[in-house]
Amino acid sequence: MDVSQYLQCLEYMSKQAAVSKTWYEQFQPLINILGGVIIGFILNKASDYFKTKKDRKMQIKVIREEVSRTKELFSGIYKEAIRLADLSYAKQEADAWAFPSKIKLACISEFFVSLSYKFTEAERVAIFHLISSTETLNDFLSEFMKGETQPKDHKELGNMAMNLANTSTVCHQLCADFQDNSINSSPILSTALADVLGLNESPLIQAIKKQAEDHKNRSRV
Question: Beta-carbon neighbour count of residue 173 at 10 Å?
Fold first, then answer.
C-alpha cells in the first residue's frame, strides 16, 4: 500500500467514525459550552441577589442607628436650649452655648426613599416628618450661629432658644414614634421631653406648666 492509498484509508475511517457518532456526541462540545454559560449566569444572578439582600439589610440597620443617634442629639439641643431660655427668663447673660452647626440625616437621605417599602406606614410617616422638622431645626441653628459672635439681648436669646427647644422636642418625639412604630396624634407638649430628661427644676419649664395649668383651670370655669 502506497502513501496515497494509506491517506485515503484514514480519510474513509474518519468519515465512518463521524457518521457513527450520535447527535449528542456530535453536539456535546457545544452543549458543554452552553451549559457552562448558563450555570455561570445563574451563579452570578444568585450572587447579585444575595449581595443586594445583604446590602438592603445593612442599609435598614444604619437608618435605624441614625435615628437612635440623632434622637440623642435632639435631647442635647433641647437641654441646652432650655438652659439658655432659663438664663433669658432670669435676665442673666449667656457667654457661650453648645449647639451643633447642623443635624445631618446622611443615611436616611441616601437610602430611605428606595427602601421605604420595607418600613411600616407609621415608620414612613415618622421619617418623612422627621426630615421636614430637621430642616426647620437646621434653619433655627443657622440663624442662631449667624449671630454667635454678636451679643444678644434677653428677649432675642429667649425667643431663639424656645424655637430650638420646641423644634428639637418635635424631632425627638418623631424619632421615638419611629422606634415605637407608632403615630403620635396627640399634641407634643414643650414640657414632655423635660419630664423625661429630668428638667423639672427649670424655671422656664415650671412657668410653662403653671401657665398650662392656669389655662386648664380657666377652661373649667
Answer: 22
Q: What pLDDT score does 31 carry?
A: 63
Q: With contact defined as beta carbons under 8 Å apart, do 174 and 67 qualify?
A: no
Query: For the CA atoms of 142, 148, 154, 156, what is the dihedral angle to 10 degrees?
Result: -30
pTM more than 0.90: no
Question: CB–CB of 94/157 below 8 Å?
Answer: yes
pLDDT at 187 over 50: no
- 168: number of Cβ within 10 Å: 28
Q: Which three cell numbers stand for residue 30?
A: 457545544
Q: Please state the rounded mean pLDDT for residues 126-139.
A: 94
- Using a CB cutoff of 8 Å and minimum separation of 24, what contacts does 181-188 make? 181/120, 181/122, 181/123, 182/122, 183/121, 183/122, 183/125, 183/126
Q: At CA 145, angle to CA 187 and CA 130, rounded to 5?
A: 30
